[in-house]
Amino acid sequence: MRGDLLFLPLVGRLWRMALSDDADPALGEKIRAMHAEKMAGDPEWAALLATIPDLQLQS
Predict the structure, then answer these.
(1) Which residues pair with residue 15 across a beta bridge?
(2) pLDDT at residue 40, as a whole number
(3) What's the pLDDT at 58?
(4) What pLDDT score does 59 carry?
(5) What span, in angstroms and rounded, lies between the C-alpha atoms of 19 and 35?
(6) Cα 28 from Cα 20, distance rounded (Å)
(7) Cα–Cα distance for residue pair 13/24, rounded to 1 Å
(8) Cβ contact 46:39 at 8 Å
(9) pTM for this predicted structure
(10) How far is CA 47 from the centre of its chain?
């Protein structure tokens, strides 16, 4: 996380790649829920992500 505080302000584009060999049809939703929980639990990190001009985290 300390590294994120240094490099996230420099990022211009961050796209999530969704690749898995897991057959669980709910996997995407589970990952989105885990990410949302992390963002809610760390507002400083969420604010840093919000400053990235081209951010695509949803599938």
Answers:
(1) 56
(2) 93
(3) 66
(4) 54
(5) 16
(6) 10
(7) 29
(8) yes
(9) 0.63
(10) 12
Q: Which two tokens stand for residue 26?
A: 């709910």
> Which amino acid is residue 59, in one-letter code?
S
Please name the residue that has the structure tokens 């507002």: 43
Distance CA 58, CA 16 (A): 7
In sequence order, which residues have a C-beta less than 8 Å from that of residue 32 and are 6 or more positions away? 58, 59
CA pair distance 21, 8, nearest whole angstrom: 29
DSSP letters, 1-59, are -HHHHHHGGG-SEEE---------TTHHHHHHHHHHHHHHH-HHHHHHHHT-SEEE---
Residues 6+ apart with CB under 8 A from 8: 48, 49, 51, 52
Q: Which residues of the chain have pLDDT under 50?
A: none
